[in-house]
Amino acid sequence: MKKLRNLLLSVFLGLNALAQAQPAQRTFLPPTMGWSSWNTFALNISDKIIEGQADAMVSQGLKEAGYQYINIDDGFWDGRAKNGQLIINRKRFPNGMRAVADYIHKLGLKAGIYSDAGDNACGSNAGTQAYGLGIGLAGYEEQDIKTYLQDWDYDFIKVDYCGGMHMGLDEREQYTKISNAIRKTEQQTGKRLVFNICRWAYPGTWVSDIADSWRTTGDIWDGWPSVRDIVKENLYLQAYTGGGHYNDMDMLEMGRSMNENEERTHMAYWCIASSPLLIGCDMARLRPSSLALLKNKDLIAMNQDALGIGAPVVQREGDVYVVAKDMEQLHGSKRAVVVMNLTDAEQTIRVDLARLELSGKIQVHDCFTGRNLVVKPAKKGTQQVFDVTVPAHGSQAYIMTGTRIAKTHYEAEESWLHNYQEIKNAQTANYSQSTEASGGAYVYNVGGNARNYMEWRNVWADHDGNYIMTVRYASNENRSADITVNGVTMNNVAMPKGTSWDKDFRTVDVPVTLKRGYNTILIGQDYGFAPNIDCMDLHE
User: Fold this and answer.
1) Of 340, 416, 439, 540, whose CB count within 10 A is highest?
2) 173: number of CA atoms within 13 Å, CB side?
3) What's the pLDDT at 132?
4) Three-class SS string for 61-109?
5) 7 Cβ partners below 8 Å, 6+ apart?
């Protein structure tokens, strides 16, 4: 693991250099809250439509609730002039785009704009809307970013990838060019700008260095199946949200065809997972229940919490999931909890409160009803539980406060995979589902080189000392792994074969030394692949 240790040192030094190179005004921002034009209006936008939605954000009380951004998506161009300047569709925007931004700003809101990493915008990709051909950022990165974010005074930019795909660009290289142009504009204007990448899949761990948020899936559409599938795709991506950088699960389909239970799941999961909250409907026509949900103070507090972290799965029974995260303080007494029922029938789940890392007298606040209740301490020798009944497609959301206890169980799917990405056909560590895995999934293809490792960054210990780390794994051949704890490596930990890669899970005990507080544990291998990793437990 010498290579791995040297790699980690170089990564640390590189991140330090990056941090020093960033403009001082690039402050931590919570997930973006606002509205986007595409899902309701598509290409059929105008200055009157955009300004009308800005008015509605204010009149409906959404601005007061925390929503800020009015984002204009595809549909405002009329091509590019011979000198390279963008041409605006004057029928739709007769006074130009700066006038619309000024109108939004006068309302105390922020303005967002759209482009593509390549040559063509997505609405024009098929050639049916010719005005969007050739208007992408490729070859015009600095010029167009200056136009959008300085000359026109927009605060947010979403950058799609239809033209990038059309040109066969390298997404990391091209999006980095765009990010550099945005940072340059920040330095010139002193204004904190927001950069959103729309690549329709998790691009790779490199994205955290260059963007504020990034899409993790294909486009959302109006309907429960779309929301359900996006939830499932994001359950095991929570390690990649943090530090002011967020998984973007796409727009909120509130106020359209879904019922109230489905909308609760939609809103609650987007909030606890720290996804940007971008309303996708006509805000002037929101039904009261949808509007109330969008303005729910408790859910918004989960989303805008200063920690800005994701919410891993802590318990699962079939397609009922319990996800949780800290609020206000890492390893503090306050936890956000959402219980989601993705099945087609009502379900009751007995939540193990130890999995929520809480004990003693626990205060429970219901985010939907506003009611408060208390879970009494468990009797000695008994499990402290909380029974939750959840309707089909629905969720329950809580803020719980109690005595914090040390986490002892860590799923592999909540770990951070150094080389993880969902785009290129590369043999890197990845997640896979299994009914026999403790949390419903495991990590495979760990190792093969020094960079392809998995990492738990938040392993808590109440005190300094020696512990036993029990690793649960599956392998159909004899394999080993190198395990690094706070920079100290144990090479070639043997993990004998079982009878299956995804069903016959076995365990191996590894002695480790931990410090009080948070510890970092890596599993990897420079030379060959480790077995498939399901989870690990810590005990003294």
Assistant:
1) 340
2) 7
3) 75
4) CHHHHCCCEEECCCCCEEEECCCCCEEECCCCCCCHHHHHHHHHHHCCC
5) 450, 451
Give the phi and the psi of residue 111 in degrees, each rounded to 5.
-115, 135
Task: Please give the Cα distance from 323 to 414 (Å, whole number).
Answer: 11
Active site residues: 160, 219
Number of domains in the chain: 3
| Residues sharing a CB contact under 8 Å with residue 210, sequence separation 6 or more, in sequence order | 175, 176, 179, 195
Residue 447 in any domain: the answer is: yes
Q: Which helix (H) or strand (E) holds 456?
A: strand 447-461
Q: If you average pLDDT over residues 490-514, what whole number do you get?
A: 96
To the nearest whole number, what is the mean pLDDT of the chain? 93
| Contacts (Cβ under 8 Å, ≥6 apart) of 273 | 234, 238, 241, 247, 249, 310, 311, 323
- 7 belongs to a structural domain: no
Give the mean model confidence (pLDDT) for residues 374-387. 94
**Angle subtended by helix axes 96-106 and 47-59, to nearest 10:** 10
First to last CA, the chain: 26
Residues 137-186: tens digit of each pLDDT = 999 999 999 999 999 999 999 999 999 999 999 999 999 999 999 999 99
pTM for the predicted model, two decimal places: 0.93
Phi-psi region of 234 (alpha: psi -120 to 50; beta: other; left: phi over 0): alpha
Q: Judge contact between 41 and 50, C-beta under 8 A.
A: no
CATH number of the domain that residue 195 is part of: 3.20.20.70
**Within-domain flag for 2:** no
Q: What is the pLDDT of residues 34-74, one digit of tens each?
A: 999 999 999 999 999 999 999 999 999 999 999 999 999 99
- Which three-class secondary structure state does DSSP give residue 269? helix
pLDDT tens readout for residues 276-326? 999 999 999 999 999 999 999 999 999 999 999 999 999 999 999 999 999
Residue with tokens 């330095």: 187
280 plus 359 within the same structural domain: no
Distance of CA 143 to the CA centre of its chain: 30
Looking at 304, 337, 364, the residue that finishes a domain is 304
Residue 196: C-alpha distances to residues 19, 117, 374, 408 (Å) = 20, 11, 41, 35
Which residue segment(s) compose the domain that 349 sits in?
313-404
